[in-house]
Hints:
The protein is mainly beta.
Amino acid sequence: MDKKDITYIVAAFCIILVIAFVIKPLATGQPVNTGIPVAATTEPIITETPLVVYANTTSIAVTSSPTPKPTTWNQKAQTIGFVNPDTYHLSTNSSLPQGTRINATPPDINRTVYATISGKYGGTTQIINIPFPYWELSYTIDPMIGPMSGPAIVSQQITPTLGNEVSRSGIQGSYGAVTPVFSIQVMDATDPNRIVRSITPPGGIDPNLWEGIKPTTPAVTTRPKYAETAATPTPSNTDPRPWTEKFYEGQRSYYFIINSQYLNSYTIKILVPTKYIGKY
């Protein structure tokens, strides 16, 4: 091997070393390995000191006041006066707030007959279902006679004594012996032990009073042979028929127990608001 060949071999070997130790590390981002030890460097450690903040505190002394005693009303009406509107931060120039508009259409107060019961004698009716939340029971009666019927005293005649005779008196007329009776018991059909309401004519049954004749205290007139007592009629116009009972419960079934004595007839009507029709 001559000198020229040896030169080529050494040059090729140098090129390989340069590629292995210089070019390849540069291409991969690694430091060049020259075989010389490099002193290791350490990163400085930074120690953070916490910041101390001193807050100024102010102590507030709280004094407890006694709980006020509850005041009781002295049962006297209070008078509420007027104040300046500025007290409530209101402007005196502000307009009054608009209130709720009143509906000019009057409410429907009409009633519709839902069922009727009529007769002369008492008894127990069949069950009827009333699906409405409110209903009324209207009833009227036609009594045969009133209490103590007929003129209480038509006339009273007194015969004065003549000599040794004993005075005698005669009474014309009679007292009635019977009193009309009428009552209604409204029963809950779902609970037969529950009486919803017992109804009797308020003020009793007095046809004379209803017809406008109210007897007053009899006036006695003394005459030589007799004294006559007569009832003075006074018009009153207080016929209460028909009577009406209002029921604010409904939507259930009922039956009625009727007690009737000395009546020509009676009529009971179950009324419901007309506005309910078609809604229940």
